[in-house]
Amino acid sequence: MSLVNVASLDFNEIKASIKSYLRADGKFTDYDFEGSNFTVLLDTLAYNTYISAYNANMLSNEVFLDGATLRENVVSLARNLGYLPRSVTASRASISFYIDLSSFSTNPVSVTLRKGIVATSAVTFGGRSYVYSIPEDITSPVSQGLVSFDGVDIYEGAYVQNTFVVDSNNKNQRFILQNPNIDTNLIRVEVRESKNSNITRVYKFANNLTDVKPTDDVFFINEIEDQRYELLFGDGSFGSKLKNDNFIIVNYVVTNGEKGNGIDSFRFSGRFFDNNGSPVKVIAPLVTTVEAAGDGAAIESVESIKKLAPRVYASQNRAVTASDYEALIPKIYPEADSVSVFGGEELDPPKYGKVFITVKPKNGSYLPNIVKDNIKTSLRNYAVAGIIPEFIDLKYLYIEYQSNVYYNQNLGDASKIRALVQKNVESFAKSDELNRYGSRFKYSKFLKLIDDSSNAITSNITNVAIRRDFKIVTNDPSEYEICFGNKFYIKNDDGYNIKSSGFSVPGISGTVYISDAPSNSDAGIVFLFKLDSTGEPVVVRDNIGSIDYKKGEIRINSLEISATSKTKFGDPIIELSSLSQSNDIIGLQDLYLQLDTSLSSIQMVSDVISSGIDLSGSQYISSSSYLNGQYIRL
C-alpha cells in the first residue's frame, strides 16, 4: 500500500486523502468512516497534518528574503548581506539662546551645556508634549558677561544611559540596549579601563570593515528582536578588543520619530556648568527657533529592507552604475524618500563622465545645498575616479483629471457617492503608486478605482492631462526648457495643443499666453497670443521657441516676463499643460509624478438607463472622451 502524497493545505482535502489511503488497505475497503467514531481519529490526523503542512510552508517562506514576512527574519537575512536597516530617526530642530552672567562676581572662562534633555515643546503638539535632547556637551566662551549658544541642533526624544561591565569569563555576554525606538545615529559610546577609572576612550560607529584597523576604537550595531539593538566590539583584528572589567557607557535618544515633526516653539530645560565643573544657576533663557523640527522618520519598513538589502550588497560599497547610486544614497541620507539617478550618456546631447542625481526628501520638496554637498562628500568614499555626481532639483509632473461618473440613483445618493470617489482618489494620490521616481500612472487601474468606489457606479468617462509649473525670472530676459518626459498628443494640426496660464511681457499690453503650431508630427514652433473681445486667439509674437512633440519638450528662447497671473509659495510661475499621447503617464528620469486633486474635477451623472428612468436612452447624457477646447488655463 503506497503512501498518499499530501500536497494540499485544505483540511477537507487532507482528510479525503487519508481516507483514500486507508481504503487502499483491504481491511477498510467497505468501512463507513463518517458513520463511526473513527471519524474523530481522522479529524485529528487531518488537523495535525494541516498544522504541520502550514508550519512547514511558513517556515520555508521565512528562510528566504523575498518570502519572509516577520521583521526579525527579514533583518536577520539582510544581515547576511551586510545590510543594517535604518533605525527610527529623531526629528531635529535648531535653536539659539544666550545667558547673562554680568551679575556674577567672577565670570567663568566658558560655560558648557550638558548633554541630555535641553528643551521641551512650549505647547502641546497633537495632544502631547515632547522633550528634546543633545547627544554631546556644547561649550561656549564667556564674552563680556554673555554666553551665546547659536544654531544648537536638538533632537526629539528622551536621553537614556546604559552601562555594562565586560566579563571576559562570560563567553555569551551581549551588550543589548533594552529600549526600542532608538535613533542609532545618536548612539554615543565611551569605554573606561574600569568603573572607577577617569580615563575615557570615545568609540566611533563603523559600518564598513574595509577601513577598520586593529587598533581603532569602533563599535558595530545589529538590530535584534523587538526592534532593539545590540552593540558589538572589535576582536583585535577589526577594531580594538575589549578587556576584562572595561566599563562601557552608552548614551542614546529614544524618540517618537516623525511624530515630533513640525514643532516650532520650545522652552529651555537644560543644565549649565562652568569650566571648573560647577553648576551655573541662571534664569531659564528664552529660546529662539532657528529651524522648526523636521526630518523625523519611522524605522525602515520590511518592504524597504527587502528592496535595498540586495541592491546595497550588489553595489559592493562602490558607486559605478546608476543602480549603485540609488542603493547607496538612502544609506548615506536616510531622509531620502525617493531617489532617481541616470547617467549623462542618456541625455541629448550626452554628457559623458557625469551622473545626475535627484532626491525627494521625506519632509519638503527640495534638498538644501549643504545637504547636497554632504552627500557628494560621502559619495567620494564609494565613487570611482572620473565620475562626477551632479544634483538636479526636484521637478514635479502633475496629472490632472476630469471625470464624469455615471451612477444608478436607485442605489445611492450622488453627493455620498462622489465623496467616496473623492476619498479613494485622494488615497491613491498619496500612495506609492505615484509618489516616487520611476512611477507610472496606470490609466486602466485609475478607472477601475473609480468604478469600484461604490456598487451604484455604472461607468465613468475620465480624461487626463499633464502639467508642469515652472518658475520664471521677472524683468530679466531668460531661456526656459520645460520637459514633460511623455509624448505630446497633437489634437489639432492647426495648433493650440499647449495651454498656459497668463503672464505679461514688456511691449505688449494685456495678458498673453503660450501655445504651439505643429510643423510636422514631431516638432513645431511656440508663439505668444492674446484673446480678443470675442475670446478668439490673436498671435502677438511668433516663433519664440520650439516644441518637440515626440520627446515632450518645450524650449523658449530669450523672453522677458514682467509678471504672472499665478504664484506658488510666493514665486511667480507659469502653468503649462498638454494631452499625453498615452493615458499611461510615466515619471521619466528626474520627474516626480503627482496626481493633482485640487485642479481636477469629479462630476456625477445619472445613468438613466441603468436607473430604469429612461430605458430608451432618449434622455441619456453623453460625456466627451476628450478634454475641452479652451485655448488657455484659467
Unreliable stretches, pLDDT < 50, 5 or more residues?
Answer: none
Strand count: 35
Rg of Cα set? 33 Å
**What portion of residues is helical?**
10-25%
**Globular, elongated, flat, extended or rod-shaped: what is the shape?**
globular
- Provide the spatial order of strands within the biggest beta sheet: 7-13-9-10-11-12-8
Kindly estimate the percentage of residues that lie in beta strands according to DSSP.
25-35%
SSE class: alpha+beta
Number of helices: 8
Distance between the termini: 82 Å
Total number of distinct structural domains: 5
How confident overall, as mean pLDDT?
A: 85
Main sheet overview: 7 strands, mixed
Structural features:
single chain; 634 residues; alpha+beta; 5 domains; seven-stranded mixed beta sheet; 8 helices; 33% strand
Could you outline the blueprint of secondary structure elements for this entry?
Blueprint: H1 11-23, H2 38-62, H3 71-80, E1 92-100, E2 110-113, E3 116-121, E4 131-134, E5 138-141, E6 146-156, E7 158-165, E8 175-177, E9 188-192, E10 200-205, E11 218-223, E12 229-233, E13 247-254, E14 266-268, E15 272-274, E16 288-294, H4 302-315, H5 322-332, E17 336-343, E18 354-361, H6 369-379, E19 388-391, E20 395-407, H7 414-429, E21 440-441, H8 443-451, E22 457-471, E23 478-483, E24 499-500, E25 503-504, E26 513-518, E27 523-531, E28 537-548, E29 553-559, E30 563-564, E31 566-568, E32 571-578, E33 585-586, E34 591-595, E35 601-606
Parallel strand pairs: 10-11, 18-19, 20-34, 20-35
Antiparallel strand pairs: 1-6, 1-16, 2-5, 2-15, 3-4, 3-14, 4-6, 7-13, 8-12, 9-10, 9-13, 11-12, 17-18, 20-22, 21-33, 22-32, 23-29, 24-32, 25-30, 26-27, 27-28, 28-29, 31-32
Helix pairs in contact: 1-2, 3-4, 4-5
